[in-house]
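Section 3.1: Structural characterization of target chains.
Under the original work plan, the team committed to producing a structural model for every single-chain target entering the pipeline before any wet-lab resources were allocated. The record below documents one such target. The sequence was received from the expression subgroup and is listed exactly as submitted; it comprises 160 residues.
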Amino acid sequence: MPSASLRSQLASLADTFASSVLAAIRGASLDDLLSEAQGTSRSGRRERPRTADGAPLPRRPSRKGRLGRRSPEDIAKTLAQVVALVKRHPKGLRSEQIRHALKLDKREVPRVLHEGLSKKMLRARGHKRATTYSASGAGAAKAAKNATKRKRTRKAPKKT
């Protein structure tokens, strides 16, 4: 346990330090105090960064929450990009690789891949994260044509 003289010496130094800090704060102007606290508000939270003229910088787009509603044209455009990318890789790509290469949000990839599989523009092999997607060759062009047309099937005549 520290001796009484050491304890009293530390208490004396702490009192001297505290009174010196208070004297410096009392002697400073309000502008000096505010410039020292730059970037923090009264609540302690950081303020948005500002430009040289004092205007706040624009915010980065938030990646939280739901995605905006995408039109079928947007999905088809993204699917075309995915098919073009996958055609360049004969062994296929995983969804993470596709997302990284096209700089897509991770929430928009499953819809596009599902659309490509249902239109037979993409072929999948494997399960879960090991699934690789590749272009289905001639089926991709055929599926693109058939996507615009509706197939009509005839019923076989009934035998009596």
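The chain has a mean pLDDT of 79.
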